[in-house]
Amino acid sequence: MKLITDLEEIKQAALAKEAENDAFKDFLRANDNEATDSIVHQLNDEVSPQIDCVSCGNCCKSLMVNVEPDEADRLAAHLQMTREAFDEEYVEKGGGFGMMIINSVPCRFLDDTKCTVYEYRFTGCKEFPALHLPHFAKRSFTTFMHYDRCPIIFNVVEGLKERIGFIE
């Protein structure tokens, strides 16, 4: 499988494959099983080492990340800030649900394509693109939301189509 890493090429391919990907999402939901997860995990293990996330940083340039209170506490302490000052500067709180997200896109902890707080980054950052997690088909909405911006997701999805013989 030839990997595509150019972000503009990925974006154009994603536009061209919209109908195909809609059909593929339906296919995945109807065929949600451990075999699909196994293929995704294998593809992720093959593709991820070939993509240099640090030279890309596109996820940090285009995504809003959920923040858990203990993560905010840890990063605030690292930055030598009170939690209140940290929240005021970096976090947006959502409604009555207690949800918190980083309040800017791109992430303010990004310097060029590198995370300045890498050791203290949030779980959502650590897990992205989350292809190692179970129940890939159930998470297809999120996966395809990032398909046009993440070379790992794009190449794993395209590899999955090939390996399972999906033809639109």
Write up what this structure looks like.
The chain folds into two domains: 91 residues, no CATH class; 52 residues, no CATH class. Helix content is 53%, strand content 7%. α3 crosses α10 and α6 crosses α7. The longest helix is centred in the N-terminal third of the chain and has 14 residues. The protein is elongated. The strands form two sheets. Strands 1-2 form a two-stranded antiparallel sheet. Strands 3-4 form a two-stranded antiparallel sheet. With 168 residues, it is mostly helical.
Topology summary:
Layout (H helix, E strand, L loop, with lengths): L6 H10 L1 H13 L3 H14 L5 H4 L1 H5 L6 H10 L4 H8 E4 L4 E4 L7 E2 L2 E2 L7 H5 L12 H6 L5 H14 L4
Antiparallel strand pairs: 1-2, 3-4
Helix pairs in contact: 3-10, 6-7
